[in-house]
Amino acid sequence: MLLIKMSRMKKCIRHFLAITIVSITMMACSKSGTNHTDVLPPPPQEDECASTPKSFSADVNPIIQTKCALGSGCHGNGSFNGPGALTTFEQIKSAASSIKSAVTSKRMPLNGSLTAEQIKTISCWVDNSASNN
User: Is the dihedral of CA 39, 43, 45, 49 positive or negative?
Assistant: First the structure.
């Protein structure tokens, strides 16, 4: 009789351990639930920006014109969205910190996305005084 009770107790302990392990594993997986498409790239390091200076005309403006200044529905001529039109250096320079914030948080562009390299380009340009070079 004692052997039967001990056998049942061992069985209960094994079931308890199995359930505990499965539960902990499921909790660990659900807590990490990061959607990898929403993961933001780390902000560029200062030395990273200094070693590869970005040019407004060669690097930044092409991104803005092809991804942001796409008509009045976005930030083209006549736009009143956010900072308004982003078609000239002056408009882009005055909105530089807003642009950096919007692209690093991936709020913009609404109709598409920027690569990590494009985000880094804009961030570094803004961090290095957003000059017209």
Answer: positive
